[in-house]
Each structure stands twice: as structure tokens, then as C-alpha cells.
Amino acid sequence: MLRDQLVTIVTGTIFLFVGMASCCLAAIRRQSQVRLFLWLGIWSGMYGAGLLIESPAVAAALPHWIQISIPFLRTAFAYLLAPIVALAWLELSIDKMRPFLHAVILLTLAIGIAGIGFFVVTGSKDRLILYNNLVAAVALVVLAVVVSVPRLSRKLLVLPNRSVMVVGTLVFAIEALHFNLSRAFHYPTWRVTGSLGLAVFLLAFGYSAVQIALQSERRLLSIESELAIAREIQTSILPSGNPELKSLRIATAYRPMTDVAGDFYEFIPVDPNRIGFLVADVTGHGIPAALIAAMIKVAMQSLVPIAHDTQEVLQGLNRVLFPQLHAQLVSAAYLWLDTENHTALYSAAGHPPLLHCRDDKVERIESNGLLLGVLPDADYPRYELTILPGDRFLLYTDGVTEAENALGQPFGDHKFEEVVRRNRSLAPSELSHKLLAEIRQWQPASVTQHDDITLIVIDVTI
After folding, report:
1. pTM as predicted
2. pLDDT for position 97
3. Which residues, other chains included, contact 457 with Cβ-Cβ below 8 Å and sequence gap of 6+?
4. Contact 332, 313 (CB under 8 A)
5. Which residue has the higher pLDDT, 177 or 322?
6. CA separation for the pair 135, 110 (Å, rounded)
7. What CA–CA distance (Å, rounded) separates 377 from 374?
8. How confident is the model at residue 443 (pLDDT cuts 50, 70, 90)?
9. 343-349 and 368-369 as β-strands: parallel, antiparallel, unpaired?
């Protein structure tokens, strides 16, 4: 008995093994580009398992609980194979082909569920199989036509190599037509020919899946290379170090969320006693935000002659950036320190408040106008204060205060100010490290950083 069923057993085992390998590949990669491997794996595995359970020798070797389930499994495989095949095709389809395949999937799935239900209730396994096969045949004819006509395949399918898919589809369609006609007219058929036809079809599908995966890998490598270059460029437009002034001690922390960030900061030293500090945060993340950050760098260079006027600086940035921002906006804060005259000026555009620490007190200075890019002629109020030795200023972006814990609670202004007040005696560099450590501790280890973080700590020493 085993010798007579050897071809069926070997064929079923091969299809089942290929299906399991394909599903394992899809599970390991877990990318949308390899979903095709999952459907091909289920397709091949179901076909292989169907062949094996049709073999009395294999069925006799199975546990009893599986043996009694074989009729149900045969019925389920017969009805559910069509929607699985349609799902595989869906991964290669675009444009108007997708609604067609969605309709095929829903229709065959509905027929399949109803057919399986009829089998469970009445024991009839072929009650709706004719309708299932009819829908599958119509879909196969449509797909064969689309694949065979170059203009249609280019418009409706994503095929790295159309000729391979044409051969596979036509071989499978001819074999399926032969099998169904032979069964309708009661001619003898050989299951091995159907297996060979399906094998050719699956090989064509597998070839397309591999080509799509390789294209995705090449695209990903190209993007990663471009991101690395963009990261180098963005790093080059940021200050290479902190300015050294005899009356100030400065520390900065810059932690982008991704390879490139929308946060930007700049120092504008005019002489040993006067310097401006700019911090900006572009809405969004990634390359678009980084490009706008680079534009802020260029725009700021043209405003150096008026660096002493915080109001004019932000108005100038807004005038330059407004025509370029389109849907994106920028929050910014600009602080001007004059240690010779012991004065500080501050203006902001929709930015988190400046923190001013004196003794044990922490003052929040708002002085906010509209975000850059909202109106072309927006005004930005100027705040003036007298600075004393021992004063500390903190400029930062909202990535500092909006970091969330496991419950979704933000780090918040209150906790931020508490850490600053509690560590008043620390040097600027130590305080910035302490703040970053507190933020990391606030966030669970499994949660990635949600926003770019920029922090500048400035101490007045004279």
C-alpha cells in the first residue's frame, strides 16, 4: 500500500516542507514586503497537507483525533484554498485589480464558511464546491488575461519579471482547465500532473516574491545610505562645540529621535561679552524636518548683524521661512546675553518657556509669539531682565518635557523644574547628563524616544 502511494506521499511532503519554510521566512522577517511568502507558504502547506491526508498509509499513522478530523480538513482545504490564492495575488496587485481581488476574497471566503458550515451540519462536503470553483475559475481567467497582456500587467500588477509569471500562470491555468474538464466528462486524471502545474505556478510566484524582497532590500540600503549622509550633513550644520566665554559656562545635549532630526540650535557669539542662543523645533521628524532645520541655519547667518535684538531675529526668521514652510511650522526661542552690561533679552515663537534660575528659585519666562510660518508679519514680544553672577538659564525643546512613562504620563514641566532645582549645585554639563538620565529612567526600557531632545544649560559666572 505504501509503495502505491509513494508518489503522493513524497509530493505532499515536499509541498508541506516548502510551505513551512516559506511561512518561517515570513515570520522571521516580519515585513510587509514578505507577506507574499506567508500566503505562498500557507497555500503550499495546505496543498501538501491535503495530499498527505488523502493517503491511507499516512492517515493510518496519524493520531486518532487527527484521523477523525480528516473529512473536515479535506473540506476546509477545498473551500479555503481559493481565498488564500487570491490573497497571494493581492500582494502583486495595484490600482483597479485590488478591488477585484478583494471581492474575490470576500466571495470565496463567504462560500467557504457556508460550505464548511453545511458539512458540519449535514455532512455534505460538496454542497457549495461548484460555486467556489466557478468563482476561482473566473478569477483565474481574468488574472491570466491581465498577466498575458503587457499593457494590463504593467498597469495592474507589480511583476519584477513578467515572462516568468506568464509561464507559471498559463501552465497552471491550462492544467486546471484540463483537470476540471476531465472531471466534468468523467475522463481519468493524474494527480501528479496537477501537482506539477501547481509547482510551476508556485515557483513563478516564489521567484516574484524573492525579486520583490531583493528590490526592497536594495531600496532600504539606499535609504539607509542616504540617511547616513543626511546625518553627517546635519551634524556639520550644528555647532562643533560650545563657545568659550570667560563669563559663561555652557553645556548642550542633543538627542535626535531618528537619524536626522527637526531640532536645531545655534550659537551667535559677537564678542567675548555678547552672545545669542537659538533653539528651534520643526514640526514632524525625519528628512523634511531636517531640511527646514538646515534652512534655519542659512537664514540665521543673514541675521547676525541684528543678533542683539531678539524680536528682530525671530521676525527675520519668520519672513525668510514663511514662503518655504508650507504645511510645517517651527517653534523657536532666542536668548541674547550681554555680560558686560548685565542684561538678557529673550523672545520666543510658540516655544517652551525659558527657565531662569536664581538662588533656589526657578522662573518660567514665556514671552511667546506665534509659531514661525503662521503669519508673514507676526510679532514677537521681547522680555528683558538683569543678570547676576550665579544665574542659570535653560533652553530646551518639548522632547524634554513630553517624554512619557509606561502609563502615558509625560515627564512634564513640574518634574523638569524639580530636577533643575534639586541639582542647582551641579555644573552645566553635569546637570544636562542628570536630566537625560532622569528622562531615560522615566521612560520604560522597551519604549523608544518619541521626539527629538535639545537642551542648553548656561551659567553666568561674572
Report:
1. 0.63
2. 93
3. 250, 251, 252, 392, 393, 394, 428, 429, 431, 432
4. no
5. 322
6. 12
7. 9
8. confident
9. parallel
**Full set of structural domains in the chain with CATH:** 6-224 (1.20.1070), 241-460 (3.60.40.10)
What is the number of alpha carbons within 13 Å of residue 372 lying toward its C-beta? 33
First to last CA, the chain: 99
Q: Phi first, then psi: what are they for 4, rounded to 5°?
A: -70, -30
Size (the chain), residues: 462
Count other C-beta atoms under 10 Å from residue 274's C-beta. Answer: 18
Mean pLDDT of the chain: 87
CB atoms near residue 219 (< 10 Å): 11
Grid cell digits, residue 455:
537642551
Residue in 87, 5, 82, 13 with CA at minimum distance from that of residue 50: 13
According to the 3-state scheme, what is the secondary structure of 349-382?
ECCCCEEEEECCEEEEECCEECCECCCCCCCCCC
Helices 428-442 & 412-422, crossing angle to 10 degrees?
A: 140
The x, y and z cell numbers of residue 95, run together, are 490600482
The three-class DSSP label of residue 281 is: strand
Measured between alpha carbons, how far is 129 from 109 in angstroms, rounded to an integer? 12
- Name the one residue in this structure whose C-alpha cell is 498527505: 52
Helices (H), 55-128: 56-61, 64-67, 70-90, 97-122
Query: Where do we find the cell 497582456?
Result: 149
In angstroms, rounded to a whole number, what is the distance separating the alpha carbons of residues 155 and 104? 19
User: CA angle, corner 174, sides to 185 and 95, nearest 5?
Assistant: 125
Type of residue found at 130: L
Inter-axis angle of helices 35-53 and 6-29, to 10 degrees?
160
Dist. CA 202–CA 196, nearest whole Å:
10
The number of C-alpha atoms within 13 Å of 167 and in the hemisphere containing its C-beta is 9
Alpha helices in 186-285 (DSSP H): 191-237
Give the residue among 92, 216, 89 at the shortest CA–CA distance from 159. Answer: 92
- Give the DSSP H/E element, type plus range, for residue 182: helix 162-184
**How are beta strands 361-365 and 368-369 bridged, if at all?**
unpaired
Give the model's confidence band at 444: pLDDT under 50 very low, under 70 low, under 90 confident, else very high.
confident
- pLDDT one-digit tens code per residue, 315-368: 999 999 998 887 789 999 999 999 999 999 999 999 999 999 998 899 999 889
Q: What is the DSSP code (8-state) at residue 451?
A: S
Rounded to a whole number of angstroms, the CA Rg of the chain reads 34
Note whether 456 and 265 are within 8 A (CB). yes
Tell me if residue 362 falls in helix, strand or coil: strand
**Do residues 264 and 280 make contact, with C-beta atoms less than 8 angstroms apart?**
yes
> Which of 45-54, 219-228, 275-284 has the lowest average pLDDT?
219-228
